[in-house]
Amino acid sequence: MMGRSASHVTLECALSTRPNIALIGEEVAEKKQSLAEIVSYMADIVAQRAEMGKHYGVALIPEGLVEFIPEFKTLISSLNRLLANEIHALVLKALKRADSKVEYVSSLLTGHTAEVFASLPLDFQQQLILDRDSHGNVTVSQIETEKLMGMMVAAELQKRKKLNKYKGDFNFITHFCGYQGRSGFPSNFDANYCYALGHVAAAIVNAGLTGYLCAISNLAQPVFKWKPKGVPITSLLNIEERHGKQKPVIKKALVDLNGPKFLLFFRERSRWAHQDAFVYPGPIQFYGPEEITEATNFHIRSLL
């Protein structure tokens, strides 16, 4: 699912569809879960469902998951430093074969960071080394996280099979719900929301104000109860370090692990893991009863 720096989309989709597995990056960071622990958790559910004769399932993974895994963050930071070194960069450029480049970088890494890098499939080792942005950093957004997790879960289940701890046959199919997830028809809520924001923008410009963010609150209520407002952008800024300098930035809005939506997900996910509790929300409705045309996440809010 889309969401490099936050897992809101994954959480919302999980509540709407009830998959067997949904990983929330903020929870991974909070619990300091390792890549091996995440893979083991997923493999456990696959194996348990296989014992129940359920050789199928769905897992939702946020695209930015790797950035929340502590050891992966350390690995990426180490690679960025190594590959910023001009000597290492020249050696890598001179090496023709991709696997030779991987071997060279592997020889430079030490300790647990080297172990994490070695545990990754060759394709992803190469991706971490060869795909860099204009600043020479790893392009995390280009890492096919869903494919990486699928391959590592498959390898874990293969180990268990040799130990007679798993008797199924695991095959995975991945799909990145990216652009098609944000290119569908706007719902009535979307249209009303953007129309209302336009009104706020016009009011702020008419008042001769600048440096304001247009916002609407009370969105869970009917449209006539919405509250338009202008928020000074300076009130949202925090001073954080960027490229070695202190700069004013808007703090990332991450999933609240103490909020009602995550707590609902936390309460229900064990049941969803083993039962077939799948829900098909259906297509967007433009006409009909108000609860299906105007309300957002109607069935979710009824559970809350």
Structure report:
This protein is mainly alpha-helical and 304 residues long. The protein folds into two domains: 8-182 and 258-274, Rossmann fold (3-Layer(aba) Sandwich), CATH 3.40.50; 188-250, no CATH class. Helix content is 50%, strand content 9%. The protein contains 14 helices and six strands. The chain has a two-stranded parallel ribbon. A two-stranded antiparallel ribbon has the order 3-4. A hairpin with a 2-residue loop joins β5 and β6. α1 packs across α12, α5 (70-84) packs across α8 (111-119) and α7 (98-108) packs across α9 (122-130). It is globular.
Shape: globular
Reading off the top of the CATH hierarchy, the class of the largest domain is best stated as: Alpha Beta
Q: How many separate domains make up the residues?
A: 2
Q: Cα-atom Rg, whole angstroms?
A: 23 Å
Chain oligomer state: single chain
List keywords for this structure.
single chain, 304 residues, mainly alpha, Rossmann fold, 2 domains, two-stranded parallel ribbon, two-stranded antiparallel sheet, 14 helices, 6 strands, 9% strand, globular
Structural topology:
Elements: H1 8-17, E1 21-22, H2 25-31, H3 35-51, E2 59-60, H4 65-68, H5 70-84, H6 86-94, H7 98-108, H8 111-119, H9 122-130, H10 145-162, H11 188-206, E3 212-217, E4 227-232, E5 237-242, E6 245-250, H12 260-274, H13 290-293, H14 298-303
Parallel strand pairs: 1-2
Antiparallel strand pairs: 3-4, 5-6
Concise account of the structure shown:
50% of the residues lie in helices and 9% in strands. It is mainly α and 304 residues long.
